[in-house]
Amino acid sequence: xxxxTLLLILIGGQFSAAGKTNQNGKTNAQRVSFIKALGLLPDDxxxxxxxxxxxxxxxDVYKNYNELQxxxxxxxxxxxxxxxxxYTYPVGRLxxxxxxxYYVHLMVYNGRIIGGDIASNNFYxxxxxxSKIGTGK
Length: 137
Known about the structure:
Number of domains: 1
Shape: globular
Largest sheet: 6 strands, antiparallel
Number of strands: 6
Helix content: 25-40%
Number of helices: 3
Structural class: alpha+beta
Radius of gyration: 16 Å
Order of helices and strands: HEHEHEEEE
Strand content: 25-35%
Distance between the termini: 59 Å
């Protein structure tokens, strides 16, 4: 009985930890509000979406991507094998001296934002965690 109780506490802790960081993202207005809270101005008239599956086995690339998630308080480990929707919003330039255009990618599962990134459109550009950064303008 003790082991069962301990197991339930550990499992419950894992789910509540994942639930602490994710935000409502079911509607476009909720996603736009989330992005604005990061200090960015999304162009929701040009937003796109696609459905993908989080891999069951993380490759080195996905392990690195999950480390980026952890920097913003997310962890995709709890979503292995799950289909999520990725919403992409253009947000323009982040810095005046940088000509790269940036996009915010939000990973949404069951109406909750579970991760994502802020990425340059440049092939060798940077990828940033979902954290408040401001526009630099």
